[in-house]
Amino acid sequence: MERKDFETWLDNISVTFLSLTDLQKNETLDHLISLSGAVQLRHLSNNLETLLKRDFLKLLPLELSFYLLKWLDPQTLLTCCLVSKQWNKVISACTEVWQTACNNLGWQIDDSVQDALHWKKVYLKAILRMKQLEDHEAFETSSLIGHSARVYALYYKDGLLCTGKALGLVS
Prior knowledge:
This protein is about 60% helix and about 5% strand. The protein is mainly alpha-helical. It folds into three domains: about 5-50, no CATH class; about 55-135, Monooxygenase; about 145-170, no CATH class. A two-stranded antiparallel ribbon has the order 1-2. A hairpin with a 2-residue loop joins β1 and β2. α8 runs parallel beside α9. About 5% of the residues are buried. This is F-box/WD repeat-containing protein 2.
């Protein structure tokens, strides 16, 4: 088919397609898809992806993004930071979200510090420390040689640790 004839045909079919009901449009698309080969289906897949997948967080005004982010829990926010650099930038800049997360962990919030990245780092360090405590990895342990019974006293100064045990008293 010549280019000019094709364009005329396409205009006519477009007008007809627009006059159909939604159900008829769906049936027409289903039929065209069933007639399509691999090249057409790949073309359709590539074009549909750009039409259907929109980065709404990127499209929203920053204030509205912050409002929506307040509804997510911190773990979800951290996962969302992995979606893209833009999402990480927006989520990391939301001071109120990270202050609230720190507050929920029991941190006293200093409202004079408005750096969202500071509060995100505080939150991440707190979560790491809590995991270390949970896994018994927060402190270094070592065994002391020299006591065969319980230790009843400890004294630490300048990197030295002194221990003591109860003496047996005769009455």
